[in-house]
């Protein structure tokens, strides 16, 4: 069996480890984990598989969610892997799907009000970290005040808490998908708890973790 055929069969098998997740979210988490694991070539095979099993409407939804998740995960896996993952995703889809995606910048200077964005980011921060939120804020701010400012305002405020395409629960599940391949247990534990606080079921969380682990191990 060729490597490409082996990869395709492997991707077909991902459905068996993540049945709790609805398909477009399942494949969004998978694409996120593939980018995190530095395996953008797998995203190409994932898109080919999605073309077989998703309707056109679902396909548009998957691609919109996947590229939004990748954008948000700049906060987790860094710009180079996000760029490579997004390139693989967009190069693999048909023009018919591309034509149905938003073409205007959503996070423009016109919508950026510092106080509103900071407040929104702080709200999500407090939900994700709950009783540990203030302690963690103080610890990170003690290391470097600019670090907690950037995390809460730009990452949590401008990126992660923007729910226009990917809601807060789904974003946390995608964050789990991004964290598993980079092996950061403390942050993973925090976001597993955060996903639960945002409404994800134990089955959702378990599926996201196993899916990302299978991708990381491939």
TrEMBL record:
<dbReference type="InterPro" id="IPR052999">
    <property type="entry name" value="PTS1_Protein"/>
</dbReference>
<protein>
    <recommendedName>
        <fullName>Carboxymuconolactone decarboxylase-like domain-containing protein</fullName>
    </recommendedName>
</protein>
<dbReference type="InterPro" id="IPR029032">
    <property type="entry name" value="AhpD-like"/>
</dbReference>
